[in-house]
């Protein structure tokens, strides 16, 4: 299924660490490779996905890298239905979403035709006048990472 998404990784002086993800690797669960953002003082990389199934596992691969300073790694994720980029940072060795003031991630039950694909939810800006969709209770959310 077509589904645009972008990832930006910001990590100071981690060029060597990110290098394996800048090459194509058919063994990965996700497709593509990160491109370095040119002319940045500190390291920055980006990738864009056009389909759900092309991006599964990318967070796991980023977590597994031997970061010199994981506390400085910032991963910004944007799914096509998100109002803005979400921020993910390392906490206890795992990349977790950091709450951004003025936003809320909404999880709704996935449609039956997408039962085999993990759902990232939707990151919405709050206070924009719209009524957010009904939020699924914790037990009804998909625990699998779509990233």
Structural notes for this entry:
The chain is mainly β and 147 residues long. 7% of the residues lie in helices and 31% in strands. The strands form two sheets. A six-stranded antiparallel sheet has the order 2-3-1-4-5-6. Strands 7-8 form a two-stranded antiparallel ribbon. The mean pLDDT is 83.
Outline:
The protein has 147 residues and is mainly β. Helices cover 7% and strands 31% of the residues.
The helix/strand series, from N terminus to C terminus, equals: EHEEHEEEEE
State the end-to-end CA separation: 15 Å
Kindly report the spatial arrangement of strands forming the biggest sheet. 2-3-1-4-5-6
Helix fraction bin: under 10%
Specify the oligomeric state: single chain
Got a strand count? 8
What fraction of the residues are assigned to beta strands by DSSP? Answer: 25-35%
Summed over residues and divided by their number, the pLDDT gives a mean of 83
Instruction: Tell me the structural class.
Output: mainly beta
How much is the radius of gyration in Å? 16 Å
Low-confidence stretches: none
Could you give a short account of the major beta sheet?
Answer: 6 strands, antiparallel
Which word captures the global form?
globular
- How many separate helices? 2
């Amino acid at each position: 299924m077509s589904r645009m998404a972008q990832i930006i990784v910001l990590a100071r002086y981690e060029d060597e660490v990110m290098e394996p993800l800048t090459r194509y690797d058919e063994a990965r669960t996700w497709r593509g490779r990160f491109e370095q953002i040119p002319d940045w003082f500190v390291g920055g990389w980006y990738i864009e996905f056009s389909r759900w199934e092309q991006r599964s596992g990318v967070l796991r691969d980023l977590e597994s890298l031997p970061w010199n300073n994981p506390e400085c790694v910032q991963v910004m994720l944007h799914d096509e239905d998100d109002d803005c980029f979400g921020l993910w940072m390392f906490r206890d060795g795992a990349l977790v979403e950091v709450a951004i003031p003025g936003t809320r991630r909404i999880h709704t039950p996935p449609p039956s035709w997408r039962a085999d694909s993990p759902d990232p939810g939707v990151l919405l800006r709050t206070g924009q006048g719209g009524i957010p969709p009904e939020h699924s209770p914790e037990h009804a959310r998909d625990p699998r990472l779509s990233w």
